[in-house]
C-alpha cells in the first residue's frame, strides 16, 4: 500500500526453513497490496513451517514430479532455471509420435469425420487413430503432469525460473501456493475434434497450465502465464478451424473454493480462466469463490474470467485486448457472465486496441446465461470513460451488454459484498494509475527468491 517494498509470504516460508541452518532466503518487490494473499484465498499458507527435509530445489522434470508427489507436509519446492517438458533427453522436441508412433492428426481427422467435419464416420483407420490417440494421450499426461499435494508451495528461485509445457494439477487437495514462475501452457498433442461443439464443431484440448479442481485454498501469485513459443496462430487449420492444442491457463472447477489469483501477467491465450465447468453442476453453488487482483490480462481472447455460480471479486486489474485480423488473439470479451455467477468488479482498467468507443462495451462482457454483474470505478482507456452502475457508456445505454444468447434481464446490484468477507484496499483508482501499478508489479521476476539451505532427498 504505502510501502515501496515488502517481504512476500514465499520469502517468509523459505527464510523460516533456512534459518535453522543459518542460510539466507529473501524476497522483495514493489508493494501492491501487501505480503499476504488478499481475498478469498487470504488464509493460504502453503508450505509454511516446512522442515529442511521437506524443502526441495529442482531443475529437472523428473525431480519436480518426484518432489511434488513426495508424501511430506508441509513442503516447499523451489524451481531453479528452466524445466522444459517439450524436449526429450537429447534436447529434441517431443511430438505426437514421441508418445504414439503412427498417430497423425490429419489422418485422424480425415478418417474419423466427414469432409466438413460435421459428422462422425466409422472406419478401420479411424479405430487405429483413436486407439493411438488414447494411448498417446495417457503417455503424454503421465509425462508432463505435476500433481501437487496438501500444504505445498511451488516457487521459482531467482527471477527467471520457467516451467515450459508442464501441466500443474491441483486436484482434491488444500492449501497450495504457486509463485514467481514463468509458465508456458502445456499443449495437448492429441487434441480431439467434436462435431457437436457449436454448429460448426470445435477442437478441444485437455491440459491447462494450472488446473485447480476440487481443491480448497490456492494462491497463484507473481507468475507469467502464456502460450509462449506455441501461439495458436502456428497451429494447422482443419475443418476450417484452427486446431486448438491449449485449454485454460488457470481453470478453477469442480467445487474448488477459496482461491486468489494476484499480480500475474496472463497473456497470449484464448480460453484463459474458467470458473465452473458446466451449467448443470449445481453442486458448485456456494463454492468457486475466487479473487483476482493486480493482474495484467494482455492479448487474451476470452474468459478473464468466465464464471458460473461463484462469488468472484475482480479488482485493480489491467486488461489490454486487441481486435482485428492482424492479431493472434482477437478479443471476444473480457468477462463471461455465466449461470448464477456473482461477479463484483471494482476499479479495473480496460484498454482495447483497434476498437471504437461503440465496441468497448460489447468486448468487455458476454452473458452466457448470467443475470448479475456489478461494477464500481472501472474505466475504459485513458479517457476516463466509466462503466457505471446502469451499465452505460458515457450515459448511453449499450444493448451490447446483453448478448444475443441471453434472454433475461441483468441486475447491476451486487448480490454480495466483498468487504463483508475479507479486508482489502483499492490500491489505485482511475485508468492511468491502475495501469501503472499493475505494469510495475505483475508477473515473474518482480519477486526475487534465494535459498542456500539444506534440502530433502529425492529418489
Automatic annotation (TrEMBL):
GO BP annotations, alphabetical order: polysaccharide catabolic process
Location of the Pectate lyase domain: 104-356
Domain of life: Eukaryota
Keywords from the named record: Carbohydrate metabolism, Lyase, Polysaccharide degradation, Secreted, Signal
Pfam families: Pectate_lyase_4 (PF00544)
Residues of the signal peptide: 1-27
UniProt-annotated location(s): Secreted
A GO MF term: pectate lyase activity
GO cellular component entries: extracellular region
Listed Gene3D superfamilies: Single-stranded right-handed beta-helix, Pectin lyase-like (2.160.20.10)
Broad class of where this protein is predominantly found: secreted
Family recorded in the similarity comment: Belongs to the polysaccharide lyase 1 family.
Name of this protein: Polysaccharide lyase family 1 protein
UniProt lineage: Eukaryota, Fungi, Fungi incertae sedis, Chytridiomycota, Chytridiomycota incertae sedis
Amino acid at each position: 500500500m504505502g510501502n515501496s517494498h515488502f517481504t512476500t509470504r514465499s520469502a517468509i516460508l523459505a527464510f523460516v526453513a533456512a534459518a535453522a541452518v543459518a542460510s539466507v532466503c529473501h524476497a522483495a518487490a514493489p508493494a501492491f497490496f501487501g505480503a499476504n494473499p488478499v481475498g478469498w484465498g487470504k488464509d493460504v499458507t502453503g508450505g509454511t513451517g516446512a522442515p529442511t527435509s521437506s524443502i526441495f530445489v529442482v531443475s529437472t522434470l523428473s525431480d519436480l514430479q518426484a518432489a511434488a508427489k513426495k508424501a511430506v507436509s508441509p513442503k516447499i519446492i523451489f524451481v531453479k532455471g528452466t524445466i522444459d517438458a517439450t524436449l526429450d533427453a537429447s534436447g529434441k522436441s517431443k511430438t505426437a509420435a514421441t508418445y504414439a508412433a503412427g498417430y497423425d492428426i490429419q489422418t485422424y481427422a480425415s478418417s474419423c469425420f466427414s469432409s466438413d467435419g460435421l459428422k462422425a464416420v466409422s472406419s478401420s483407420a479411424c479405430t487405429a487413430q483413436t486407439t493411438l490417440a488414447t494411448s498417446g494421450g495417457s503417455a503424454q499426461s503421465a509425462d508432463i503432469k505435476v500433481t501437487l499435494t496438501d500444504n505445498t508451495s511451488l516457487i521459482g528461485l531467482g527471477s527467471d525460473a520457467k516451467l515450459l509445457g508442464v501441466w500443474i494439477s491441483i486436484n482434491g487437495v488444500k492449501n497450495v501456493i504457486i509463485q514467481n514462475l514463468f509458465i508456458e501452457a502445456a499443449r495437448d498433442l492429441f487434441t480431439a475434434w467434436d462435431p457437436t461443439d457449436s454448429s460448426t464443431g470445435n477442437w478441444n484440448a485437455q491440459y491447462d497450465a494450472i488446473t485447480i479442481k476440487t481443491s480448497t485454498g490456492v494462491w497463484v501469485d507473481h507468475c507469467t502465464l502464456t502460450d509462449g513459443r506455441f501461439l495458436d496462430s502456428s497451429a494447422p487449420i482443419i475443418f476450417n478451424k484452427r486446431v486448438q492444442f491449449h485449454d485454460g491457463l488457470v481453470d478453477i472447477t469442480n467445487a474448488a473454493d477459496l482461491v486468489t489469483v494476484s499480480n500475474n501477467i496472463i497473456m497470449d491465450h484464448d480460453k484463459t480462466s474458467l470458473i465452473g465447468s458446466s451449467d448443470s453442476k449445481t453442486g458448485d453453488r456456494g463454492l468457486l469463490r475466487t479473487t483476482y487482483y493486480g493482474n495484467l490480462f494482455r492479448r487474451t481472447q476470452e474468459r478473464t474470467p468466465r464464471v458460473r455460480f461463484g462469488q468472484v471479486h475482480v479488482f485493480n486489474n489491467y486488461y489490454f485486448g486487441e481486435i482485428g485480423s492482424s492479431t493472434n488473439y482477437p478479443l471476444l470479451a473480457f468477462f463471461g457472465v455465466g449461470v448464477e455467477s456473482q461477479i463484483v468488479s471494482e476499479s479495473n482498467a480496460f484498454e482495447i486496441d483497434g476498437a471504437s468507443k461503440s465496441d468497448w462495451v460489447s468486448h468487455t462482457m458476454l452473458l452466457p446465461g448470467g443475470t448479475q454483474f456489478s461494477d464500481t470505478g472501472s474505466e475504459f482507456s485513458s479517457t476516463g470513460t466509466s462503466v457505471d452502475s446502469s451499465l452505460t457508456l458515457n450515459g448511453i445505454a449499450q444493448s451490447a451488454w446483453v448478448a444475443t444468447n441471453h434472454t433475461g434481464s441483468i441486475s447491476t446490484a451486487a448480490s454480495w459484498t466483498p468487504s463483508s468477507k475479507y479486508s482489502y484496499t483499492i490500491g489505485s483508482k482511475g485508468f492511468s494509475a491502475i495501469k501503472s501499478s499493475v505494469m510495475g508489479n505483475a508477473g515473474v521476476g518482480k519477486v526475487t527468491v534465494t535459498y542456500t539451505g539444506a534440502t530433502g532427498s529425492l529418489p
